[in-house]
Write a structure and sequence with these properties.
The chain is α+β, with helices and mostly antiparallel strands and 789 residues long. Among the domains are: 36-184, no CATH class; 762-788. It is built from 26 helices and 14 strands. It has helices spanning 48-63, 85-95, 103-108, 120-130, 135-160, 169-174, 189-194, 207-214, 216-248, 254-261, 284-293, 297-326, 334-345, 358-399, 407-441, 446-474, 503-543, 551-560, 568-585, 594-616, 631-653, 656-666, 668-671, 683-687, 726-756, 762-788; strands at 6-11, 21-27, 36-41, 66-72, 76-83, 180-182, 266-267, 278-279, 481-482, 485-486, 488-489, 493-494, 688-692, 710-714. The strands form six sheets. Strands 4-5-3-6 form a four-stranded antiparallel sheet, with helices on both faces. Strands 1-2 form a two-stranded antiparallel sheet. Strands 7-8 form a two-stranded antiparallel ribbon. Strand 4 (66-72) and strand 5 (76-83) form a beta hairpin. Helix 10 (254-261) runs antiparallel to helix 11 (284-293) and helix 15 (407-441) runs antiparallel to helix 16.
Length: 789
C-alpha cells in the first residue's frame, strides 16, 4: 500500500495463504518530499498578469491533487510540487491486468534486483525501520527508488499537459510566467561512485541502477551503447589487421615498384597554375600509403562488416529481450500507458483514434516528399556539395601557386574541415526543419511524434554528414573531361581532380579528418561546455551570496544551477551514435580504421554521458520503454546502405576491379598462362592514358617543355580524339556486375545471419510461457475453490 505519508512493505510466509503481515514502515518524507520543482523569476511576483497566471496554474494543479510549497531567494521563486497518492493509485488501477500477480509476487520480484545496488536511500530506509530485518529493508528501499522515478514521470506528464486549450506549461515559460521545471537529483551518490567516474571506464555498467534512477529509456540507451562498444572489439581488430597487412606488402607491391621506378613517365598538370610536368616517381610515397587501405583484403573486410552489422543487431535484440523480461516489461504497452496518463490528467478526455484517409494520406505524402526530398534534402545535399565543390576549386586555384607539390592534399584536408563546420551548422537547421515537418503531420501520441521526428531528422543528418563522402567517392574526378578540354566551373575555374595516386586517398583523408574531428572536438565540447557552464553558475552564486541556510532551498538551488535538459537530451545522444555507426559501416572499405576510432570514442562517450547526466545536468524525467524504438529501424537501414555503399566504393572508387581485369585479361598472365612473374606487371602503364603536350594550351609556359612530348593521366581513353577506349567500357561493365554480385552476396549473408540468430532467446520464451502457464493454473485453482464453496 502506497500512501502520501509512508510506504508500507508487506510480506507473507512462504507457501501459506495467511493474510499479509506488516514487517516495517519506511517514511517517505524522510528522503522524498517533492516530485519536482518549478522556478520563476522574482520579478514575476511584481507583475500582476504573470502572478495571476502562476496562481491559476498552481490552483489547477491543486485541484488535481497536488500540493506545493513556495520559497524565495534573492532572485528566484521556487515552487516544490508533490502529488497525492490517489493519482498513483488510479494509475495502478488503470494499468493493472486481471491476470497480474498479486502483492506477494510483486514483492518476490524484488529479488531480481542486484544486491550491488545499494543507494543511500537503502541505508536511510534500513536505519528508519528495516535495519536488522534481512534483505527486505534493502529491497524495499530499491522498490522505493523505482517508485520515485514512477512518480516523477506521472507528475511531469500532468504538469506539462494542457490545463485549458492553449495554456500549457511550455506556453507559460514562453510568456515568462515560469522559467523551468525539473525533478530533483536524490540518491545519485551510488551512481557517482560506481558509474560516473573516468576511473570506471573499463568497468561493467550498473544497468539496473541506471534504470532505477533514470528510467528504462535511459538504461536501454546505455545498455545498447555498452553492447555496441563491446561488439566493436572484433571489428576494430579485423580492420587493424587489414590495414597493417598493407605494411607487409609496403615495398613488395608490383604497382608501388612500378610507380617508384617510373622516372621517364611525366604526369599531365592538374591545376591551371601548374608550371611543370610532375614525374610519376614523385608519387612513390603516396602509392605505398594508398596500398595500405586499397588492397585485396578490402573486399573481404567489407563483407565481414556487413555480416558484423547483422550479427550485432540480432544479438542486441536477444540482449534487449533478456533485459526487458528482467524488468518485467515484456507485456508493457506504451500506447496504453499514454492513454492512462491522459485519463489521469483529464478524466473526460476524448480518445484520439487512428484515422486513415487515402486522400489526406496522399496529400500529406506528396507534400512531405516535396518538402523533404525536393525542398530540403536534395537542396541541402546539392547546396552543400556545391559549397564544397566551389571551395575546393577555388582553394585549388589559390594554393596551386603557393604549394604546387601538395596542392591536392591541402585542398582535401581543408575541405574536410570546412565540411565539419557545415555539419555543425546544418545540425541546428535540420532539427528545426524536422520539427516543422513533424508539426505539420500532427502525430496522435508522443511516441508517434518521436518516431516521425527521428526518421525525418536522421534523413537530413545523413545527407549533411555523408554528402562530401558521396561526392568524393562517386563524382570527384569523373566529370572533369581530359587535359586540353577540362570541365570548368562558371567557365573559369577548372574542376578539382582526384589525387594522382587515386580517389581512395582523398576518401581516406576525408573520413579520417571528419571522424577524428567528430570524435575529439565533439566529445571535448560535449564535456567542457556543461562543465564550464556549471562552474560559472556556481561561482556566480557564491560571488553574489545566493547560498541559503535552508537545507531544502539549498538543495533546490543546487539542482537549479545544473545544466538544463530538454526533450532532445537523450535523443541527441542517440543521433550522435547513429551517425558514428554510419561512419563505422558505410564507406568502411575506404577507411578500415573506423571501427577502431569508434571503439576508443565510445569508451570515453559512456563515462562522459554518465558524468553529464549525474554530475552536470539536471535529472532527466524517467521514461518507460522496452526497446530503443525507431532507432532499431535506423540501424537496419544503415546496414543495408553500408552494403550498397561499400560495394560501389570497391567497384568505382578503388583500383580493385581494374587490377583484376588487367590481371586476367590484359596483363601478361591473361596473354600467357605460363607467365611466372607478377601478373600485375605493366599495370601502371596500362592504366594511364596518353596525351600529346602539343594539344595543351599552356604547354609553352611549362618548365622543361621541350623535353616532354607526351604526358599521362588517370583514365582509359584513346590516343587519338581522346574518346573512351574499349577498356573503359569493358571495365565499366565489370564494375556494374561486381556491384550487383557483391550486394546480392552480402545481403544474402545478412539474411542468413538474421534467420540463423533468433531475435528472442529460447530461455526468454520459456519463461514467458511458464508465467502464462502459472497464471492459468492459479485461475483454475481459484475457480475450483469457488465451485467447492
Amino acid at each position: 500500500m502506497m500512501g502520501d505519508e509512508s510506504l508500507q512493505i508487506f510480506v507473507g510466509s512462504e507457501g501459506d495463504n495467511l493474510p499479509l503481515m506488516e514487517m516495517g514502515t519506511c517514511r517517505l518524507e524522510a528522503f522524498h518530499q517533492w516530485d519536482c520543482v518549478l522556478v520563476a523569476d522574482l520579478q514575476t511576483q511584481e507583475n500582476q498578469w504573470q502572478r495571476q497566471k502562476q496562481q491559476q496554474f498552481l490552483e489547477k494543479l491543486e485541484s488535481k491533487g497536488f500540493h506545493f510549497k513556495m520559497i524565495k531567494d534573492q532572485k528566484k521563486v521556487f515552487f516544490g510540487i508533490r502529488a497525492d497518492s490517489g493519482i498513483f493509485d488510479l494509475y495502478r488501477t488503470l494499468l493493472m491486468k486481471p491476470e497480474d500477480p498479486g502483492p506477494r509476487s510483486k514483492l518476490n520480484n524484488m529479488n531480481s534486483i542486484p544486491a550491488t545496488t545499494r543507494t543511500e536511500r537503502a541505508w536511510m530506509c534500513e536505519e528508519q525501520g528495516f535495519k536488522g530485518r534481512g534483505p527486505l529493508g534493502y529491497h524495499g528501499a530499491i522498490l522505493i527508488l523505482s517508485f520515485l522515478g514512477f512518480r516523477i514521470r506521472i507528475v511531469s506528464f500532468v504538469v506539462n499537459s494542457k490545463m485549458k486549450p492553449g495554456d500549457t506549461f511550455e506556453d507559460l515559460v514562453k510568456h515568462g510566467v515560469f522559467e523551468t521545471m525539473f525533478p530533483l537529483h536524490e540518491g545519485e551518490k551510488d551512481l557517482k561512485k560506481k558509474w560516473a567516474r573516468w576511473r570506471n571506464m573499463f568497468r561493467k555498467q550498473p544497468i539496473d541502477d541506471i534504470r532505477n534512477y533514470f528510467g528504462e529509456k535511459v538504461a536501454l540507451y546505455f545498455a545498447w551503447l555498452g553492447w555496441y562498444t563491446y561488439m566493436l572489439v572484433p571489428a576494430a581488430v579485423v580492420g587493424l589487421i587489414i590495414f597493417l597487412s598493407g605494411f607487409a606488402l609496403f615495398d613488395s607491391s608490383q604497382i608501388s615498384k612500378e610507380i617508384c621506378q617510373a622516372e621517364d613517365i611525366f604526369m599531365c598538370p592538374l591545376g591551371d597554375n601548374s608550371r611543370r610536368y610532375q614525374r610519376l616517381s614523385e608519387l612513390c610515397t603516396f602509392a605505398k600509403l594508398t596500398h595500405l587501405f586499397d588492397n585485396d583484403g578490402t573486399v573481404l573486410f567489407a563483407i565481414f562488416m556487413a555480416l558484423w552489422a547483422t550479427v550485432f543487431l540480432e544479438i542486441w535484440k536477444r540482449q534487449r529481450a533478456r533485459v526487458v523480461l528482467h524488468w518485467d516489461l515484456y507485456g508493457w504497452d506504451e500506447e496504453e500507458e499514454e492513454m492512462a496518463l491522459e485519463l489521469i490528467n483529464y478524466p473526460d478526455c476524448k480518445l484520439r483514434t487512428h484515422h486513415h484517409s487515402y486522400l489526406s494520406s496522399t496529400i500529406i505524402l506528396i507534400l512531405s516528399l516535396l518538402m523533404v526530398l525536393l525542398g530540403t534534402v536534395i537542396c541541402f545535399m546539392i547546396g552543400m556539395a556545391h559549397v564544397l565543390v566551389v571551395y575546393r576549386v577555388l582553394a585549388a586555384a589559390l594554393f596551386s601557386s603557393l604549394l604546387e607539390q601538395q596542392v591536392t592534399t591541402v585542398v582535401v584536408v581543408t575541405g574536410a574541415v570546412v565540411h565539419y563546420v557545415i555539419i555543425v551548422i546544418m545540425t541546428k537547421v535540420n532539427k528545426y526543419v524536422a520539427l516543422k515537418l513533424c508539426n505539420f503531420e500532427d502525430p496522435r501520441t508522443f511516441s508517434e511524434r518521436e518516431s516521425k521526428f527521428t526518421v525525418k531528422f536522421f534523413i537530413l543528418q545523413f545527407f549533411a554528414h555523408f554528402s562530401s563522402l558521396i561526392y568524393i567517392a562517386f563524382i570527384l574526378g569523373r566529370i572533369n573531361g581530359h587535359p586540353g578540354k577540362s570541365t570548368r566551373l562558371a567557365g573559369l575555374w577548372k574542376l578539382e581532380e582526384c589525387h594522382l595516386s587515386g580517389c581512395m586517398m582523398d576518401l581516406f583523408i576525408q573520413m579520417a579528418i571528419i571522424m577524428g574531428l567528430k570524435q575529439t572536438l565533439s566529445n571535448c565540447v560535449e564535456y567542457l561546455r556543461p562543465l564550464l557552464v556549471h562552474k560559472w553558475r556556481l561561482m556566480r552564486a557564491y560571488k553574489h551570496g545566493h547560498e541559503s541556510k535552508d537545507p531544502e532551498l539549498e538543495e533546490w538551488q543546487r539542482n537549479y544551477r545544473m545544466n538544463p535538459v530538454n526533450t532532445f537530451s537523450l535523443f541527441d545522444e542517440f543521433m550522435e551514435m547513429m551517425i558514428q555507426y554510419g561512419f563505422t559501416t558505410i564507406f568502411v572499405a575506404a577507411f578500415p580504421l573506423a571501427p577502431l576510432l569508434a571503439l576508443f570514442s565510445n569508451l570515453v562517450e559512456i563515462r562522459l554521458d554518465a558524468i553529464k547526466m549525474v554530475r552536470l545536468q539536471r535529472r532527466l524525467v524517467p521514461r518507460k520503454a522496452k526497446d530503443i524504438g525507431t532507432w532499431l529501424q535506423v540501424l537496419e537501414t544503415i546496414g543495408v546502405l553500408a552494403v550498397i555503399a561499400n560495394g560501389m566504393v570497391i567497384a568505382f572508387t578503388s583500383e580493385f576491379i581494374p587490377r583484376v581485369v588487367y590481371k586476367y585479361r590484359y596483363g601478361p598472365c591473361g596473354q600467357n598462362r605460363n607467365f611466372t612473374e607478377d601478373c600485375l606487371k605493366g599495370y601502371v602503364n596500362h592504366s594511364l592514358s596518353v596525351f600529346y603536350t602539343k594539344d595543351l594550351q599552356d604547354h609553352s609556359r611549362m618548365e622543361g617543355q621541350e623535353n616532354v612530348t607526351v604526358c599521362r593521366y588517370r583514365d582509359y581513353r584513346n590516343d587519338q580524339g581522346y574518346n573512351f577506349s574499349e577498356q573503359f567500357w569493358f571495365i565499366l561493365a565489370i564494375r556494374l556486375a561486381f556491384v550487383i554480385l557483391f550486394e546480392h552476396v552480402a545481403l544474402c549473408i545478412k539474411l542468413i545471419a538474421a534467420w540463423f540468430v533468433p531475435d528472442v532467446p529460447q530461455s526468454v520464451k520459456n519463461k514467458v510461457l511458464e508465467e502464462k502457464y502459472r497464471i492459468l493454473r492459479e485461475k483454475m485453482c481459484f475457480n475450483s475453490r469457488s465451485t467447492d464453496v
